[in-house]
Amino acid sequence: MLLFLLRRLGAGVALVWVIATLTFFLTSLTGSDPARRILGPTAGLDQVAAKSAELGLDRPVLERYWDWLTGALRGDLGTSWFTNEQIGGLIGDALPVSLSLVVAATVLTAAVSIVLGVVAAVRGGWLDGLLQGISTVAFAVPNFLVGLVLSLVFAVELGLFPALGYTAFTDDPGAWLASITLPAIALAIGAIATVATQTRGSMIDVLQQDYVRTLRSRGLPTRSVLLKHALRNAAPASLTVLSLQFIALISGAVVIEKVFGLNGLGERATSAAGQGDVPLVLGIVVVAVVVVVLVNLLVDVVLGWLNPKVRIA
Amino acid sequence: MSILSDAGPAGPAPVDAVAAPARAGAVRRLLRNPVAVVALVWLVAVAVLALLAPLLTSQSPTASKITEALAPMGGDHPLGTDGVGRDVWAQLLYGARTSLIGSLIVVAVSLLLGLPAGVLAGYRRGRFDAVASWVANLLMALPAIIVLLVVLAQFGRSTALAMAVFGVIIAPGVFRLVRSSVIAVREELYVDAARVAGLSDARIMRRHVLPVVVPPTVIQVSQLLGIAIVIQAGLEFLGLGSANQASWGGMLSDAFQNIYAQPRLLLWPALAIVLTVTAFSLLGNALRDALGVSGRVPRVRRRQRTDAPPVVAAGGEVPAAPDVPDALLVLDGLRVAYPTPEGTEREVVHGVSLTVRRGEVLGLVGESGSGKSQTAFAVLGLLPPQARTSAARMTFDGTDLRGLSPAAMNRLRGRRIGYIPQEPMSNLDPSFTIGSQLTEPMRHHLGLSKDEARTRALQLLDRVGIPDPARVFASYPHQVSGGMAQRVLIAGAVSCDPDLLIADEPTTALDVTVQAEVLDLVRELQAERQMGVVLVTHDFGVVADVCDTVAVMRDGRIVESAPAERLFADPQHEYTRMLLGSTLEDTPARGALAGAGLHPEEIAPAPLTSGGPR
Amino acid sequence: MRRSLVAATAASVLLLTAACGGSSGESSGSGDSTELTLAAVTPPSSFAVGEMAQSGPEDHYYQAVYDTLLELDEDGQPVANLVTEWSYDETNTRLSLTLRDDVTFSDGTAFDAEAVKANLEAAKGRSGEAGSALGAISSVEVVDATHADVVLSRPDPALLQSLSRSSGYVASPAALASPDLATAPVGSGPYVLDADASTAGSTYVYTRNEDYWNAEDFPYDSLEIRYLDDTTAILNGLRSGEINGVAGGTSDVTTGAENAGLTVTTYTNGGIEGVYLWDRAGALVPALADVRVRQAINFAMDRETIVETVKGGLGEPTVQVFGPNSPAYDESLEDTYEFDVDRAKELMAEAGYADGFSMTLPDFSPVYPDEQAAMTEAFASLGIEVTYSPITGDQVVGSIIGGQWPANFFNLTAGSPFEMIGLTLTQQSPFNPFKNADPEVDRLVQQAQTTSGDEQTAALQELNRYLVDQAWFAPWDAAEGTFITTTDVAVTAVPGVSVPPLTGFEPAGS
């Protein structure tokens, strides 16, 4: 198991490196005149040239790549071209926002999907049909549409939640929760539809297994059969889907952050990509992929724990 | 949730499983599904509208008539105009083009990459598989939108480019699906046989591999089309779509700008997106059903319990259960029926009556499909939820089992009625240790502490002849042998000292050498604890070995019921004679049948029919 | 999910009722007049002197912490601020300044002539907009603590305007050399940046500078500026009272805000919007070299309607690139190109382009969808076929300056006629991408720059008339900016400045 994890970790590091390298060359070789963009329309050509030199853009691209890579390995992702802030700091400020949002949406997804999936699988009938129908539609509604409507109704009209902005958990846990509630719901709806459907399917599969009948023949309470045994056996499949959804949620957060004025990684990514702030774009890509790699590792650990065959091996 | 406790979807469904459908009929099956038809009609309509857009509106979707901004519905603008006076109807039509073309690009790119790579990786394996899988993992770790942001920032906004890139990002989904299908079919014997027979790879590919790959891919394509539309709308909302193109996402974005002035604008693009994506998903589901890729879950309905009006005994030759004073289990006129897809019911047990006394072993014998297992599960209350059971009488130790609450039934099951299943390996929960599966019922029913339950479980394991109880106690099911697992299940069945034991072909799945030992064990435990036993079997050897009385079942009826000795000595019913005859002819020797007056060498445990696991 | 679905259903119902019933929502602003929360559509690029943007949505970030040497009054004219008196010598190359003696920076350093010298010289060397506007300064001489002379290498009629804007920001001389100044400003302004409460690139929290010399112009005790770039999110924030104000941006937002019951303040912001015809030499599109074609394009623009519908009325229709409060402006020129498609077609036919022509323009529809649509419509009326080529945000300006487009919709903002001349009329001008040279234009520019008073005004107006006659550009309007606030905040704007200064904010009704 430990060896397995080490191998996965190694693969993860390689993954981060490959993606960072691809992004570096993609952004460095095709981008146009960032100095002009920074200095604005009125700057003269000599000023633009000076700025380019200041950013090191006059040096060979491989040299820049090497500098960036060695810097990144030391934990120094450089400085934003546009705001002069340290990339590490900018991402450090934005990461808690995005992680709060994505983790809250993931927790919400997991909780609601389990309940819905189990209920649909166990009760069946019209309830199952209804939940299936709702899932299908929920999957089809773009998350920003949900977000905008939620914001309009619950924040603007009813004033129950803030319409925009993020409050750090450390500042005020209550306000933190309020600030991510609507975005997390908007973000989670599509994921819930997917994961609930998966949970329903794997629950139905598990409930048809012989051992479930045997467990029931032992007179165990329904709660134990369903929630302890069946759910435990259905969990790996759901968890795998959930881990894929986590990546999708990071994507979805880009749009949702915009709708709710949350200055998270997604917001940073949109503006940095739009401006051509190469160091910031690189930093964000690296951090996003690192998060994904870590989450996948975590999922591997949990899957191993859930599946005794892997755990023992 | 209460349903499960009286019958979950766990019991064996006697209705013939829908045979793996031939693909030839897939289209017909699809068209018989009303949901699929509605979805298809919608999608075809959208496609036709998109295609014929220039004929359906004379307005340009992008030309704005600033003097006509936010015009109401009617006149030249059937759906009005948007904030810059663009015709909403024209935008919807041309937007459909953008959306459909975009999603086709996604599908084309992902198929182009994923399909050949998946086939090749699955078929050839080796280095190509390793590299392709690594690339797939790499792509799957990428948050799609961030990649799209970077690419579009570098190369300019373009819906087609964005969709192509998204196709690349999502290609691993196709790749993995195809690859695993190919690997599965490759492992199968007939491909090996085909290889041996000297067929060319191309032929194997065409004849054997593609048929397996196509159905799941078709389903996935249908879902991809929907996903692509949603993603595209998100990109257009972020302002990353092509500009001189009408698009549904762009319309949504524009509508939000005008939300206070003209909320109606939001409705059309939202409906278009939601309905189209929903239609794609529903079509995917319907395709799955039609292609029979994954079995549809049976409709689960609240089951009527055995409180139906008393039924007339079926046929004069079936003896009504006599009132026996020390009767433990009494069934009178038990019927089990299942709904058919046509809406009628099909009865599989037609009025079975039998009685089991304390300390008596009843053999319930019959060929597979004769209804013997259905009868046993009816007693345990473990039939699938859609089953309908009724009986004139159904009592256990004086308690009427009909209409018993789930909780009350749970107090009987495990505690007073034990159950030994047929297939040892599949009847242990793979995720929990054997110890925990043994102790959980004891702690629940007998209120034992963790340590007490453990001690007792170890004793039980020892009692059922397991050499190293502590090791097995701590093991997971996959770590023990089948014979060992069956002993564990027997230990579990008797762990709470039940009065009645229902054993459903407890030895069928075991090696011949182990069968006798396990049977002896059941007999010993029965004698030791004075349990009544219902032994479901198709094996007269087993009957002769352990049963006091025998009931022979055929087609859901008991055709003959007699004490074992009498039955073997003087079978009354023709069917019984036939069964006995075939047993005697075909089977190798086996001991311990002297009681039945037969030579041990002549009786064997081989099954009458090859009733495979359900 | 069930609960959220109920909520979503409720949401859609509420949405429709709310929308149909018009603006039912009242601003739930805190009502506490001592806090002001503004939204800005860009984060601050840099707090370093000389690096700051000339003017625009970023201004508020800087105005909060820095004082300018001069200030603009309600007519947009320079008035005293840190500088109390100023005068030019007769050659217009030496500017003498008299300074306040009661100002200290937040690090305790005193404001004096040395500080002015250090700041101007530091700013001049920087590459930002603020720095490049100081190009004419050759040195600063310290006379005494409260007097300094700015020595110019050439007359710069736009200098006083610049010193009233971001080129005039003054930071503590002790912090000038530090690279930290870019993110940790040390100024003498009305507020100080609370770094702990702020989040870089996202939320900037300012608290009152207790020792400030001019506190009565800043009624709010604290100020928060949030970077928000999604219009829907901004509108929602204003509606829910979480933010008090934002620059209006597009007319959609302004209309949305009006419909949402918010206060909209309008003012001339110094921008001239319209179609800028760069390729007057016909390098890319030969037709544009013909003055009749350029005039035809001008005749084809329905300026009144464009302003009314595209701009939502936010603009003063004009054919001139010098705005109504510019000395170069000449009211009588306005009827030169009355909207007349027939006349335009005649001119096209005379020029030999009766069937029009085609050209490729940059696609600005993501930012200016309505403007682009209006432009397309006008061109189409003359048979001019436009193909739009996609372009990313960071390529826009570079590609224009690089001469990639024959024309495009654009907005050039200038605080003075000389700034506009510098931007687009000379051969060194960045927005003269094809380096058009016209002896008459050069002569008039030269004349305006070397004269003063009425003579200068006359030269500017003559230049203006020449440009209009030659149809160098096809302007639409002198843009009006809007600032949207919640009902409890009142705003006073300065004409010609893109965003109202912080001094213009006060609680409504006070």
Automatic annotation (TrEMBL), chain A:
<dbReference type="GO" id="GO:0055085">
    <property type="term" value="P:transmembrane transport"/>
</dbReference>
<comment type="similarity">
    <text>Belongs to the binding-protein-dependent transport system permease family.</text>
</comment>
<feature type="transmembrane region" description="Helical">
    <location>
        <begin position="134"/>
        <end position="156"/>
    </location>
</feature>
<feature type="transmembrane region" description="Helical">
    <location>
        <begin position="237"/>
        <end position="260"/>
    </location>
</feature>
<keyword id="KW-0812">Transmembrane</keyword>
<feature type="transmembrane region" description="Helical">
    <location>
        <begin position="12"/>
        <end position="31"/>
    </location>
</feature>
<keyword id="KW-0472">Membrane</keyword>
<keyword id="KW-1133">Transmembrane helix</keyword>
<dbReference type="InterPro" id="IPR035906">
    <property type="entry name" value="MetI-like_sf"/>
</dbReference>
<dbReference type="InterPro" id="IPR000515">
    <property type="entry name" value="MetI-like"/>
</dbReference>
<feature type="transmembrane region" description="Helical">
    <location>
        <begin position="176"/>
        <end position="196"/>
    </location>
</feature>
<keyword id="KW-0813">Transport</keyword>
<protein>
    <submittedName>
        <fullName>Peptide/nickel transport system permease protein</fullName>
    </submittedName>
</protein>
<dbReference type="Pfam" id="PF00528">
    <property type="entry name" value="BPD_transp_1"/>
</dbReference>
<dbReference type="InterPro" id="IPR045621">
    <property type="entry name" value="BPD_transp_1_N"/>
</dbReference>
Automatic annotation (TrEMBL), chain B:
<dbReference type="InterPro" id="IPR003593">
    <property type="entry name" value="AAA+_ATPase"/>
</dbReference>
<feature type="transmembrane region" description="Helical">
    <location>
        <begin position="209"/>
        <end position="231"/>
    </location>
</feature>
<feature type="transmembrane region" description="Helical">
    <location>
        <begin position="161"/>
        <end position="178"/>
    </location>
</feature>
<feature type="transmembrane region" description="Helical">
    <location>
        <begin position="135"/>
        <end position="155"/>
    </location>
</feature>
<feature type="domain" description="ABC transmembrane type-1">
    <location>
        <begin position="96"/>
        <end position="284"/>
    </location>
</feature>
<dbReference type="InterPro" id="IPR027417">
    <property type="entry name" value="P-loop_NTPase"/>
</dbReference>
<dbReference type="GO" id="GO:0005886">
    <property type="term" value="C:plasma membrane"/>
</dbReference>
<feature type="transmembrane region" description="Helical">
    <location>
        <begin position="266"/>
        <end position="287"/>
    </location>
</feature>
<dbReference type="GO" id="GO:0016887">
    <property type="term" value="F:ATP hydrolysis activity"/>
</dbReference>
<keyword id="KW-0472">Membrane</keyword>
<keyword id="KW-0812">Transmembrane</keyword>
<dbReference type="InterPro" id="IPR035906">
    <property type="entry name" value="MetI-like_sf"/>
</dbReference>
<dbReference type="Pfam" id="PF00528">
    <property type="entry name" value="BPD_transp_1"/>
</dbReference>
<dbReference type="GO" id="GO:0005524">
    <property type="term" value="F:ATP binding"/>
</dbReference>
<dbReference type="Pfam" id="PF12911">
    <property type="entry name" value="OppC_N"/>
</dbReference>
TrEMBL record, chain C:
<feature type="domain" description="Solute-binding protein family 5">
    <location>
        <begin position="78"/>
        <end position="417"/>
    </location>
</feature>
<dbReference type="GO" id="GO:0043190">
    <property type="term" value="C:ATP-binding cassette (ABC) transporter complex"/>
</dbReference>
<dbReference type="Pfam" id="PF00496">
    <property type="entry name" value="SBP_bac_5"/>
</dbReference>
<keyword id="KW-0732">Signal</keyword>
<protein>
    <submittedName>
        <fullName>Peptide/nickel transport system substrate-binding protein</fullName>
    </submittedName>
</protein>
<dbReference type="InterPro" id="IPR030678">
    <property type="entry name" value="Peptide/Ni-bd"/>
</dbReference>
<feature type="signal peptide">
    <location>
        <begin position="1"/>
        <end position="18"/>
    </location>
</feature>
<dbReference type="InterPro" id="IPR000914">
    <property type="entry name" value="SBP_5_dom"/>
</dbReference>
<dbReference type="InterPro" id="IPR039424">
    <property type="entry name" value="SBP_5"/>
</dbReference>
<dbReference type="GO" id="GO:1904680">
    <property type="term" value="F:peptide transmembrane transporter activity"/>
</dbReference>
<dbReference type="GO" id="GO:0042597">
    <property type="term" value="C:periplasmic space"/>
</dbReference>
<dbReference type="GO" id="GO:0015833">
    <property type="term" value="P:peptide transport"/>
</dbReference>
